[in-house]
C-alpha cells in the first residue's frame, strides 16, 4: 500500500511539473507530507543552480475539506523553519514565492 501511494504521488508530481520552469514547483494535488518532500527537493535543486527564488504552486484549497488549504500553510511553516523568506504571490494567492536560500 505504501509503495502504491509513493508511486501515485510521484505520477501526480511528474504530471503537474512536466512543463514547469526550473524555478517553479507545483505541489497541488499532493498530500501534505508528499508536498513537503518535493518542496525540500526543489529547494535543494534551486540552491545547486544558484537561483534566487522558487515559485511554489500550492493551490487555494478548493479541493480540501471545507475549502481550507492544507499544503500552503505547511509549506509556509517549513520554509520559514528552514530559514527562508516565504511570501504569498501578490498576483496569485495559490502560489508562494520563496527566497533567501541559505546553503
UniProtKB/TrEMBL annotation:
<dbReference type="InterPro" id="IPR002625">
    <property type="entry name" value="Smr_dom"/>
</dbReference>
<dbReference type="InterPro" id="IPR036063">
    <property type="entry name" value="Smr_dom_sf"/>
</dbReference>
<dbReference type="Pfam" id="PF01713">
    <property type="entry name" value="Smr"/>
</dbReference>
<feature type="domain" description="Smr">
    <location>
        <begin position="25"/>
        <end position="101"/>
    </location>
</feature>
<protein>
    <recommendedName>
        <fullName>Smr domain-containing protein</fullName>
    </recommendedName>
</protein>
<dbReference type="InterPro" id="IPR053020">
    <property type="entry name" value="Smr_domain_protein"/>
</dbReference>
Amino acid at each position: 500500500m505504501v509503495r502504491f501511494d509513493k508511486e501515485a504521488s510521484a505520477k501526480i508530481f511528474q504530471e503537474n511539473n512536466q512543463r514547469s520552469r526550473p524555478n517553479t514547483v507545483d505541489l497541488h494535488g499532493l498530500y501534505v507530507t508528499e508536498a513537503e518532500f518535493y518542496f525540500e527537493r526543489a529547494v535543494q535543486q534551486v540552491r545547486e543552480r544558484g537561483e534566487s527564488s522558487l515559485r511554489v504552486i500550492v493551490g487555494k484549497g478548493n479541493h480540501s475539506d471545507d475549502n481550507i488549504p492544507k499544503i500552503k500553510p505547511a509549506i509556509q511553516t517549513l520554509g520559514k523553519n528552514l530559514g527562508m523568506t516565504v511570501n504569498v504571490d501578490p498576483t496569485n494567492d495559490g502560489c508562494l514565492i520563496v527566497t533567501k536560500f541559505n546553503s
